[in-house]
Task: inverse folding
């Protein structure tokens, strides 16, 4: 029996494309949260109160300025 008789089977499914797509979706969501969220994400849970409190805006305020997003 030879050590070289084994063959590596390459899967037809390319998991790297799925991983890249998943990471791109996370990155786009992160850009939205940091740059454009004015209460939209938490409004799903809090309702209209989220537009007044803007928790994510306040938490990411300095990061918004560092990234070049204007906020006031």
Result:
């Amino acid at each position: 029996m030879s050590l070289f008789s084994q063959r590596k089977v390459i899967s037809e499914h390319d998991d790297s494309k799925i991983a890249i797509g998943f990471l791109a979706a996370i990155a786009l969501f992160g850009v939205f949260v940091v740059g454009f969220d004015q209460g939209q994400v938490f409004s799903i849970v809090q309702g209209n109160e989220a537009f007044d409190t803007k928790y994510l805006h306040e938490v990411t305020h300095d990061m918004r300025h560092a990234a070049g997003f204007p906020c006031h």
Helices lie at 15-35, 43-46, 49-53, 55-59, 61-67. The chain has a mean pLDDT of 84.
